[in-house]
Amino acid sequence: MHMTGNEKQDPDSTRDSRLTKRHYAELRFIKFLNPVLMTVPFAFLWFFYYSAKVNSPFYLKGNWLVVALYFLLFLLYGRTYDAFLVSYNQVSEMVYSQVLSALVTNFLTGIVIWLLCRYFRYVWPIFSVLPVQAVISVLWSMAANRWYYRMFSARKTIIVWDMRHDMEQMIEQYGLKRKFDVIMEIPSKTCLRSLSVLDPAEAVFLAGVHSRDRNKIIKYCIEKKITVFVIPRIGDVLMSSARHVHMLHLPMLRLERYNPPPEYVFFKRLFDVVFSLILIVLLSPLMLVTAILIRRDGGPVFYRQRRLTKDGKIFPILKFRSMRVDAEKDGVARLSTGENDDRVTPVGRVIRSLRIDEIPQLFNILGGSMSFVGPRPERPEIAKQYEKDLPEFNLRLQAKAGLTGLAQVYGKYNTDPYDKLQMDLMYIANPGIAQDLRLVFATIKILFMKESTEGVAAGQTTALDEKEPPEKNEKK
């Protein structure tokens, strides 16, 4: 089950009836120990090498301040990449996230060192600590994972379902069986006849349950101190954007169409212009080489395609061509089936796996038709197909289309449109520079995750062909 990244509190540190105060404190200490251990190699490098290289040598407090800055940067990116979620992540996921956090932290600290030292060559030694940090990460992740599952057995879990019946398979697919021991799956109507059926549970998943039924179940679970995991519906996500107002001596919730503060719009556009220009300059050699390789295969270098952005406006998205020129000679708009798609050229397979084909969209961002962060722009033909089954799909057009977004970071290429829509609406519900920056940095993580680019099944034209969305099923 994908985490949304919007949680106010770290899931591992959520207190429940099974966590004693001692175990809770131990868990917090173990997680705090990781950034401390990952900072130690840098501290040695700073004190025994860099402290003598800076233009104006620091006193002892100044040296410790640099080490503290490194610690805070690693902690920030570790939380951005979910590097410390012992109970939800597998060992390999934690190691990947921690090493990536260390790499980004080393890069940013290297910039600071460049500003403090006399010569640019002093920057490179900081990356020598990365192998040591990788070993520390492996050892910590293995030890923390083993400790957690020795101390806490899997929660007895009951899945209550209505419109969606795939939660147990997803729990198994994402390696969470050691976290959730599914002892029962029951339809919501059966559960409501006798809520006491939930009494043996330590955790309850509500999958596609109607709001009026769900509220009764949630109240009962809270009263019985049972942890509840709710898969939201579109109405729930829209409600998350509500503003609290007091009117007529009553508490009220006010909802309206996406209307971000003007200062947010200004700084978001400023960020788009400045960083798209910087990246275009920095990546220009890579774009030149890519263009030459594509041109050798024949056909145009760039691929222009009609896409939808804010308020349904159509714009030509720009990509490096990764498919044959006649990829859609039958006139049917279809998504890619992934690495087995025979329409993809040899060069296209490489640039797709490395996301190089997306780089020309920097010109779309510079021109203003796209932003760095926002709902991914869909093709008008495919959007129409989605809207037949999911009329609410056009709600994602409230905001400008983006190169990356919540659905791209926490979903996949072939994620069901209903789930993607919910994630897009979650982003739209809480506009803010901090969220945009977090998603930009979180995107770095998925660049190297092969599963994030999984295509649709062979024979499908859209990601909606496998199953109907809950909202449509409910109307039947």
Structural notes for this entry:
The chain is α/β, with parallel strands linked by helices. It folds into three domains: 11-151, no CATH class; 155-231, Response regulator (Rossmann fold); 262-475, no CATH class. Helix content is 47%, strand content 11%. It has helices at residues 21-48, 60-80, 91-116, 130-151, 167-173, 188-193, 211-223, 234-239, 262-282, 284-296, 346-353, 361-367, 380-389, 406-410, 417-429, 433-446, 470-475, and strands spanning 155-161, 180-187, 203-207, 227-230, 243-247, 250-254, 302-308, 314-320, 371-373, 402-404. The strands form four sheets. Strands 2-1-3-4 form a four-stranded parallel sheet, sandwiched between helices. A two-stranded antiparallel sheet has the order 5-6. Strands 7-8 form a two-stranded antiparallel ribbon. Strand 1 (155-161), helix 5 and strand 2 (180-187) form a beta-alpha-beta unit. Helix 1 crosses helix 2, helix 1 packs antiparallel against helix 4 and helix 2 packs antiparallel against helix 3 (91-116). The longest helix has 28 residues, at 21-48. The radius of gyration is 25 Å and the shape is globular. Mean pLDDT is 84; it is low at 1-10, 12-18 and 452-461.
What's the arrangement of secondary structure elements?
Blueprint: H1 21-48, H2 60-80, H3 91-116, H4 130-151, E1 155-161, H5 167-173, E2 180-187, H6 188-193, E3 203-207, H7 211-223, E4 227-230, H8 234-239, E5 243-247, E6 250-254, H9 262-282, H10 284-296, E7 302-308, E8 314-320, H11 346-353, H12 361-367, E9 371-373, H13 380-389, E10 402-404, H14 406-410, H15 417-429, H16 433-446, H17 470-475
Parallel strand pairs: 1-2, 1-3, 3-4, 9-10
Antiparallel strand pairs: 5-6, 7-8
Helix pairs in contact: 1-2, 1-4, 2-3, 3-4, 9-12
